[in-house]
Structure of Sigma-54-dependent Fis family transcriptional regulator:
Amino acid sequence: MKQQRLLSDESDAIFSLPDRAEADSLDALLWQSWQSFMQGEQPSTLRYSILQSWQRSQQQAIDPYSFIYTAPPAHELDAILEHNAELILVARSIMENLLAYNPDGHINLTDAQGVTLHFCGADLTPVGSILREEVLGTNCTARCLIEQRLVYVLSGENWKISLRKRRRQCAAAPVRDASGQLTGVLTLTATPENFNAHTLGTVQAAAEAIGQQLMLRRLLAEQQSILETLNEGVIVCDKQGRIKTLNRYARQIFSGLDPQGTSIDELLRPQGGSLLTMPFCNDRELQFMPEGLAPLSCLLSLMPAPDGGRVLSLRENQRIRAITRRVMGVSASYTFEMIRGHAPRMQQAIQKARASSRTDSTVLLSGESGTGKELFAQSIHNASPRQQEAFIALNCGALPRDLVQSELFGYADGAFTGSRRGGSAGKFEIADGGTLFLDEIGEMPLEAQTSLLRVLQESEVLRIGAAQPVKVNVRIIAATHCNLLDAVEKGAFRRDLYYRLNVISLEIPPLRDRREDIPELVNTFIQALCARLKRIPPVVAPDAMAGLQSWDWPGNVRELENVIERVVNLCEGLEITRAELPESLLNSAVNNVNEDRQPSLQNLERAHILQVIDEQQGNLRQSAQQLGISRTALYNKLNAWKIDYRALRKSAR
């Protein structure tokens, strides 16, 4: 009765195994069950799950009397073993420990498709053997693959006669991944005297240990992957300061140094104390002086590690400044191709500016307000080797006197009351590698001029309240609307700084000295504005263009652009007439012509030709006949004056 109860028990986790004395009688009973099954009967003393497996084996025409292990082709097996390399690596040591409790046994590991990946102990199942039920019939590994739970198979329950003759009992447990999916099967084969109620629990624990190790390794690999992809240096050291781990970014920062077994203080040589005794902090600015490398300024975050060590997070100030520049959008947008002007003085200025862009020498731009000094500065930067770096502009005249130095040079933590915690980088540090445009340099206070001179001479910046200077690589372009030499004579500007700035001097002509450029500028402003407004660009009538050219433009190009924007916004038709120009501009223009100066011969000729064209309603052939010149000569004159003859035809319609 005890044997019959055992053989009909379907709970593989709670059962009574036969002792050695019962093994022979149990084998005889299973042999009888086999004979009854082969005669077409369904033996009642056979476990139901085994009976079902025998039935499937019989339906699949698996020969129980022939026995040979089959394996995938060699190239496929190599790919399977490579794919499961981590599973094999983790399981190997656990399988060897399990074998210590079953020295005469055999332990094998298969993948989720029943292909043997590794074995230890008795040489029973070669690597590559396929143990699936449709290949080998009823066996312990195949049953675990199907039922995906802890199972056992007695020797007499195998389908193959050769497996029965081994007189070995088997227990198998599934190995699962982090998501609970079956990734392999661990099977223990042992003699009846070494196979007892504790065997299944041991196999189950071993399989779960493999799964846990796999999950732990995946978790560690995921964390390591995250650590490696961080765009900041991470260093982990033990409580003695010995470096344990560096991520990719930290290795790049300290490339050329060998961190293995090195104390973190010896490697980084921080200025300001030992990293082992420094209080835990977030984003503390610190300078490192590693031997053999250039000084490195970083933001340091220091946190405790679980084993009593420390975790350091380092972000280079240089990289932080680069991110700041991207966020702030500090880049130059103008190029020399965008500068409009064909007047000789303007072309000379452009040519000289292009030549200066090929060097790193300091440039001093002079010119009235509104002439386009920053446009030239941006164009020089964009034509220089520094074009991919930052372009920082600072108006020295727009800052309060007591803020100029902190804006330019920055300040250290606690430098003054109300200062930002951790300090702040100045414009020189933010512009490192790029160009710093100092507009209205003549308005800079004398005390700031002294500090600026030091930066230009030493290429290093000392923050307010800091002890150590910071090396910078910045190209300076300065601009002024006043006469700096006069300021030098009056004691308002340092003479040595003036000569240090005035390496390449470049004067930008006012608009009144290049009136021939006004038509092109006007048309450029109209086209750009109407593109933004999504409207058809109006045409400027000849008399209106003549009025624009007769004004002296004390505000230069900036004033002209503002006037054109006003006129275009108020214009309701497709033509801008003289009457639509600002009245103050026209009155002043008339006064300038009548009182201040006599019209030049060229201006009189230009006005007469435009009047004739207007009378001939834009017909250039008739206008040339009326003027007594060839049509080619008329075209040449209009082109020289930058007058669009097509616009004259349209405006006359």
